[in-house]
# Entry
Amino acid sequence: MIRYILDTDHLSLFQREHPLVMQRVNATDPQTMAVTMITISLISSFIHLLLLKDWVCSRGFSP
# Structure
């Protein structure tokens, strides 16, 4: 059963290895955590923008 929803802020802090967030996530059963489609969409959009920026810069244009 899902008991915890990790939002974009939580995932960002986890990625940056924030001590308290790392401790809490690592101590929690993964089966009880989830992320929302909104969070997945935001992360996907951010990755897409980074890739687009790299692609534009690799062709000699500045963003």
Remarks:
- The first strand starts at residue 4 and ends at 6.
- The mean pLDDT is 91.
- The CA atoms of residues 54 and 60 lie 10 Å apart.
- The beta strands are 4-6, 33-35.
